[in-house]
Design a protein that fits this description.
By secondary structure, the chain is mostly helical. It folds into 2 domains: 225 residues, no CATH class; 45 residues, no CATH class. The protein contains 13 helices and no strands. The longest helix has 47 residues. It is elongated. About 16% of the residues have low confidence.
């Protein structure tokens, strides 16, 4: 159930207020190659694949070459979709890299000014930070306004910076714990949905933007799946009911055929027209199913 989409989606949105939810998703390093759903999720599927391969080999069949099948798909029927997915990921990565490069350029300009002021190299970040902390001239005016001498004021400023840094670290740790808890809740919820609906596949569902949007809105996972797949679920339930009723009718017919005749029923039955199930119409069979479903005992 664990998959690498945990690294893409903003899981903290699912964890707000300690509510259930949490997801992270679908494209890590494997997605860079245009293969959504790989990573840990693919690893989780490796055991069933290995078991299946072992069964095929034991039966004397040639093991499936999944890599060759995948290559054939992405170079053939799904080439367009695969290329589009890869290009989208590349564009996203390039945009982030460009933004980071621009931010670094602006930061470097400021570092150049500070390095020149303190006669240091522009890449001597520790030296520049130490020089700023020890530069009393930067604090003289503020210290006077605060009614402190420069050294006292510098010490207060240093303590405030250390406290702020500590608070940031604690906030990051708390957020990470919250994200992990939200993810675990999501996995437990997904296991429950899977138990009720075997066709449920969280990896596949997370590729649906509407599914993710509802999940971020704190809608329960089971509710989302039932709403998004209500036609499939109802269709399966109706098919199951029809099969059960048909089996019940067939069992009743078999039981009636094996029952001995009573009080001349055989004679009277022979003289009258018997209902032929084998040559009945669909409407007649459906009528029998409805009657049996209502508890009526059907005899022929």
């Amino acid at each position: 159930m664990i998959c690498n989409w945990k690294q893409q989606f903003d899981i903290q949105r699912f964890a707000e207020g300690g509510a259930a939810g949490g997801a992270a998703a679908a494209a890590g390093s494997a997605a860079d190659a245009g293969q959504p759903g790989e990573g840990a999720g693919a690893g989780a599927q490796s055991a069933p694949n290995a078991a299946q391969t072992g069964q095929d080999t034991a039966a004397g069949e040639t093991p499936r070459d999944l890599k060759a099948e995948f290559d054939a798909l992405v170079k053939g029927e799904y080439k367009g979709e695969f290329d589009a997915r890869v290009q989208k990921i590349i564009n996203q990565r390039f945009a982030k890299a460009k933004a980071a490069e621009e931010a670094n350029g602006k930061m470097q300009a400021a570092m150049d000014v500070l390095a020149q002021r303190y006669s240091l190299k522009a890449d001597d970040y520790d030296g520049i930070a130490a020089a700023l902390n020890d530069d009393q001239k930067l604090y003289e005016e503020a210290a006077g306004e605060a009614g402190m001498d420069v050294k006292q004021f510098m010490r207060v400023q240093q303590l405030e910076r250390e406290n702020a840094r500590y608070q940031r670290q604690q906030a990051e740790l708390a957020q990470r714990r919250q994200m992990d808890q939200a993810y675990q809740r999501l996995m437990q919820e997904a296991d429950g949905v899977k138990a009720q609906y075997p066709a449920f596949d969280l990896n596949a569902e997370m590729q649906d933007p509407d599914f993710v949007r509802l999940l971020r809105a704190q809608v329960p996972l089971k509710t989302i799946y039932e709403v998004r797949h209500q036609d499939e679920i109802l269709g399966g339930a109706m098919q199951y009911t029809a099969q059960k009723v048909a089996a019940k009718v067939a069992a009743g017919v078999s039981a009636n055929r094996g029952r001995p005749a009573e009080n001349g029923a055989a004679a009277s039955g022979a003289s009258g027209a018997r209902f032929d199930v084998a040559h009945s119409t669909k409407e007649q069979r459906m009528a029998l199913i409805r009657r049996a479903a209502n508890g009526e005992r059907i005899e022929f």
